[in-house]
Fold:
Amino acid sequence: MSTVTSQKPSASAAGTITLGGELTVNRLGFGAMRITGEGIWGPPKDHDGAIRVLRRAVELGINFIDTADSYGPYVSEELIAEALHPYPNGLVIATKGGWERVGPNQWIHNAFPEHLREAVEGSLKRLKLDRIDVYQLHIPDPRVSFEKSVETLVKLKEEGKIRLIALSNVTREHIERALKLTPIVSVQNRYNFDDREWDYVVDFCEQKRIAFIPWGPLAQGRSATEKLKQIAKAKGATPMQVALAWLLQQSPMMLPIPGTSSVAHLEEDVAAAQVKLTDEEFKTLAS
Structure:
């Protein structure tokens, strides 16, 4: 066990972020994709273990859980409701629609208006909610107008089924086009210290006070991993904790959502909120 992990972990150590001027959450959330079966398909091998992870996440101060109807499909949302409903005050559940799961490690686009409406209705039922706090368009669909997809979410918001609208897997242009139709509270793209393709989107989100939710927070490149190992060893932390600490220091609008099916790994991830990098360590990971 690392020096950092041996301390009592709490997501509150990461500070807070406010979504859309309405919902304030701790700046370290939980991504609920990995609690499903292999290939993000079907139920988990250890159902009770998945329930324990979700309940432990809340105990550790996590009050932002990210999921999607395609995780399983449906399995992640169903497990969240089983483990946590009735939900504690202040818990924000963000889900997504517009990307369907048709088999292990297989995805297909479907952000047509009629499908998004069905997806929102399905998520409401599975999560046992009257309104979804944060609903994300999972990915733009090249077969349908991006504006039509976003306008569908706007209508669902007007109907009281969505509170706040968000985007995932988008460019700055997508965000700007969406902002002409509705406020956007968060953007979720792949991002980590060694994969910074979306730096310009992070900068734009910071300018607009939009939360940036990075997925794939631990780079897999060999040279980058060596950097992580060296800094982690010096700080008495794990490489994953250092990777998350870098994200938290990269921008005040950053909202990492590491996911796991293990309580031990969850506790390690949350303990990353206590890791503080020096300026030199931060620059080393970004170089």
The chain has one domain: 11-286. The first strand starts at residue 16 and ends at 19.
